[in-house]
Amino acid sequence: MTLYGKFDAMIDAVLSPPPKRGESDRLTCIDLFCGIGGFHIAASNLGLDVIFASDIDDDACAAYNHNFGIYPMGDIVSIQASDIPNHDILLAGFPCQPFSIIGSKRGTADSRGTLFLEIIRIARVKRPLGIIIENVKQLATTQHGAVLRRILDDLESIGYTVDWRILNALDFGLPQKRERVIIVATLSKFDKFPWPTEKIPMIPLADILEKNPDQRHFVSERIRAKRRATHTAKVSPSIWHENKAGHLSSYPWSCALRAGASYNYLLVDGERRLTPREMLRLQGFPDSFEIVSNDSQARKQTGNAVPVPLVEAAIKGVINVIGRYEIAGRSQAAQRALSARAVF
Fold first, then answer.
1. What is the rounded distance in angstroms from the CA atom of residue 253 to the CA atom of residue 280?
2. Residue 294 maps to a domain
3. pLDDT digit string (tens) for 244-294?
4. What is the C-alpha to C-alpha distance for residues 14 and 92, in angstroms, rounded to an integer?
5. Which residue, 18, 90, 110, 133, could crosslink 183 as a Cys pair with Cβ 3.0–4.6 Å?
6. Same domain, 22 and 129
7. What residues in the chain have per-residue pLDDT under 70?
8. Phi, psi of 327 (to 5 degrees)
9. 179 and 234 share one domain
10. Is 34 a residue of the active site?
11. Rounded CA separation 212/293 (Å)
C-alpha cells in the first residue's frame, strides 16, 4: 500500500463508526478458520456468544457443528463481508502451515500465508471492537519479521491499536509446550495491553493421560525397542519426542501437537501414541467435547487447534480494554455486563 493509500485508509477508519450492534447484554464474536472450536470454547467460557464460524475442512466442520450446533460456513475467501453478522470481537487462528517448523515456512509465498488479508477485509467493513489472531511462533521471524509487521501495519491502517506477544501453553496450566504468536487489536486505544503476568501451575501429565488406553494406540515392539536403544527417560510418565532430525528427548509434558507430524512423533513413555481424548485435554478442551472423527482426523484437528486457556487469556485482555470505554448503541445493562467481564 502506498503512503497516501494507507493514510486514506486511516482517515476512512476514523470517519466510519462501527456498525450498530444492538442492545444485547452479551458480547458477540465470530470464529474464522475455526477448526474444531478452541476459540469457541474460550469465548463461551467468558460469556460471549459465537454467532458465525467459517472453515474449509469438512471433518472439522462436522465436529464443530456436533458440539456447538453451528455449521461453519465454507471458504472465507468466498464469503462477502456483508453476509457476516455484525459482531463485537473477531477471533481468527488463520492457517499456520506456511510459517511452522513442521511445514515449509514459505510464509506469504504459500497462498495460505496471505489469508490474514481476509481478516483485514472483514474488519474494515464490520468494524469489530476487538480482534484476536493466533498463529505459530515462527510468524514473528518469517521473512525476517516482515509478515508480522505487515499484519500489524494493516490493522493500524484501518484504525486499530495493536500489540502482540508470544505466549506458551505451559504457562496456562497445560502440560504442552506450545508457543504461539497472539495479536490483539482494539478500536479503543490503549497504552499498555493487559497481558497476563502470572503463570498458572501446570496440570500433571498423569492427570491428562487415560488409565486404560485402547491397544490400537500402542506401537510395535520393534519401534519400542528402537526408541529404548537410543533414549532413557528420567521421569515417568513422560512424552517422548522425536524431532525432524531423529533426535529423541522426553519431558513430563508434551511438545507441541502438530497436524502434519509423523504418527510416532510423540509417544507416551516411548510405548504408545496419544489418544484423541488426551490430545484434546492437552489443548484444554473439556471432556464434554465429543469426538466424532477417526484417530487420524482427531490428530490433525487437535494439531491445528488453539490452546483454550491461552486464547481465553487474550480474550479477557481485549474485553478489559473494551470495557474501559463507552460503547455506542449499548444499553446500560449491556455496559454493566461488559464491565463485569472486564476484570483481568
1. 14
2. no
3. 888 999 999 999 999 888 888 999 999 999 999 999 999 999 999 999 999
4. 23
5. 133
6. yes
7. 1-24, 96-113, 324-344
8. -120, 110
9. no
10. no
11. 20
